[in-house]
């Protein structure tokens, strides 16, 4: 739990005018309700936000009751790493592009902050993946992901050769640019561009989506969210790979290395404004249902 029940942390790239504009509204709404507002002391332009308190980035979640991310989904994913292992919920304000995770619109910021402090926001637990890369020398690197774990070729002009297994059972041998393993939360991110399905985040499943596979028969599949996924880089071919978790580099993967992915990373809590509807969010972001909207007017 937080050490300061009347403190809130604010995350964002405040040098960008649109983000700074919304951040000013957030600070004003929080201060009006008697909250101290923490910002990362290493964030450029954070000092320009008046009535805020600078603090070490890794201390923000421990010292806060809530964390608010202002920006795009990438900003929220960065904030998610700060709240891992702490019972501190996360609210996203959209000043990016699509924003599947940051679902508070700029015109609703003040109302949503009041709903947050009044306990009227909807709580939504989302599981985290843990990716563990085991090298041939016995070294292990691990990192958590809310959206996805991505194996991607590092060198241009070459393809990767790798095998996949689910719960110890051989699935396929792949040749291509890599593989995305996404949670239901991350199904609308990189996996979607690889032909993967959009998955209701309430479902406990994982999506395995090959990236530019050499074989047209190599298609995305959906497996249980409790699965243990293993990817082994094969010795044949010169292709080297890199592994990223929510866009953060984990390590390079060499032939013979083993990547293990499973939902043992715990979970975080997202907060949504009152009346949140996932399918309405999809319609808004993907421009679905326009004809029906026109008929309703």
Characterize the structure shown.
Helix content is 19%, strand content 37%. It contains six helices and 19 strands. The protein has a seven-stranded mixed beta sheet with strand order 3-2-1-4-5-19-6, sandwiched between helices. Strands 8-7-18-15-10-11 form a six-stranded antiparallel beta sheet, with no helix packed on it. A six-stranded antiparallel beta sheet has the order 14-13-12-9-16-17. A hairpin with a 5-residue loop joins strand 7 and strand 8 (140-145). The radius of gyration is 21 Å and the shape is globular. 42% of the residues are buried.
What is the element string, with H for helices and E for strands? EHEEEHEHEEEEEEEHEEEEEEEHH
Gyration radius, rounded = 21 Å
Major sheet attributes: 7 strands, mixed
Instruction: Kindly provide the name of the CATH class of the largest domain.
Output: Alpha Beta
Into how many domains do the coordinates divide? 2
The chain-level mean pLDDT equals 92
- Helix-and-strand structural type: alpha+beta
Cα shape = globular
The end-to-end span amounts to 47 Å
Q: Strand percentage, roughly?
A: 35-45%
Q: What level of helicity do the residues show?
A: 10-25%
């Amino acid at each position: 739990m937080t050490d300061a029940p009347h403190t809130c942390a604010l995350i964002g790239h405040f040098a960008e005018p649109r983000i700074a504009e919304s951040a000013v509204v957030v600070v004003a709404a929080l201060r009006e309700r008697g909250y101290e507002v923490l910002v990362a002391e290493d964030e450029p332009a954070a000092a320009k936000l008046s009535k805020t308190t600078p603090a070490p980035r890794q201390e923000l979640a421990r010292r806060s009751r809530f964390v608010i991310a202002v920006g795009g989904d990438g900003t929220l994913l960065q904030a998610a790493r700060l709240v891992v292992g702490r019972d501190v919920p996360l609210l996203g304000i959209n000043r990016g592009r699509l924003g599947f995770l940051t679902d508070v619109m700029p015109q609703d910021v003040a109302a949503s902050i009041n709903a947050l402090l009044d306990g009227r926001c909807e709580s939504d637990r989302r599981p985290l993946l843990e990716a563990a890369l085991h090298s041939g020398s016995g070294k292990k690197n691990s990192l958590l992901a809310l959206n996805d774990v991505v194996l991607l070729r590092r060198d241009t002009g070459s393809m990767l050769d790798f095998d996949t297994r689910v719960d110890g059972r051989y699935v396929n041998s792949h040749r291509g640019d890599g593989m995305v393993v996404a949670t239901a939360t991350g199904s609308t991110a990189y996996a979607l561009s690889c032909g993967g399905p959009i998955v209701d985040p309430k479902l406990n499943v994982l999506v395995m989506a090959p990236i530019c596979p050499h074989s047209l028969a190599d298609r995305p599949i959906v497996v249980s969210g409790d699965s243990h996924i293993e990817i082994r880089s094969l010795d044949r071919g010169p292709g080297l790979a890199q592994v990223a978790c929510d866009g953060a580099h984990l390590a390079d993967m060499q032939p013979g290395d083993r990547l293990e992915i499973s939902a043992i990373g715990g979970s975080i809590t997202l907060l949504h404004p009152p009346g949140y509807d996932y399918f309405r969010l999809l319609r808004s972001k993907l421009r679905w249902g326009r004809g029906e909207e026109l008929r309703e007017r």
